[in-house]
Amino acid sequence: MSERELLIRNISDTARWAAVYRARETDRPDALFRDPFARRLAGARGEEIAASMPFSDRATWAWVTRTYLFDQYVTEQIAQGVDMVVNLAAGLDARPYRMPLPATLKWIEADLPEILAYKEEILAAEKSVCKLERVRLDLADAAARSQLFARLGNDARKVLILTEGLIIYLTREEVGALAQDLAFPPSFQRWALDLASPGLLRLLKKNMGQQLDRAGAPLKFGPPEGPEFFSPYGWKPVDVRNPLKIAARFKRLSLGMRLVAMLPASNSKQGSRPWSGICLFAKR
User: Fold this and answer.
1) Who has the most CB within 10 Å: 109, 154, 174, 199?
2) 113 or 1: which leads in pLDDT
């Protein structure tokens, strides 16, 4: 395989890729957020991965608005009484360091041991602004994650779960099982996730699928039901925000994409058109 094909070795390397876009946004005078740790976390490998994926440069607005909208949900939900945030597949996210969070907030990061060890090394000299706990965990281990969810559920009154950039790599069955497990602890009350339509999933596979497939991280999940996919598993959508509309508002789109952004938004069943939503769910 070529050097380009070897850049993404596993799913954890996608976290370095995502950090590149947070670093680039931070450098802008009109940045929607600031992440002063992103460039260090991305490292040279992150920049190489981003450079090997020209399609993702054209979709920089999507990476940036996803982070921005998740930030909004975190801030809003803490104001509404959330006392714990559980970030699953946390990757190289630095929200516990960069956001103005209450010192009493409990923040849990769960991910594979390798990526968390790398993150701890890079941020060793930094101090989180809230109570931070890192959990080494393979989320594919259903028994281990259920034990974790039970423990965390007993340690908080109102929990917000984040799965930013995770579920697109799972099958329908895996997403359903995760949703069901998350619905079990009574204190797990809110869940923020990003969702793709079947049309967007096909587009992403066409432009980036080969590299991700070779890394053992194929793109899989883009339900035609849209946010309603989660209803049978105990979660109802209470807010769906359109990254394209946000990008248009902040003038981050090309002319062609600005025209697309003028089309009416639809947050129900999705089909062939590329669509994404940053969704907030509440326990049914």
Assistant:
1) 109
2) 113
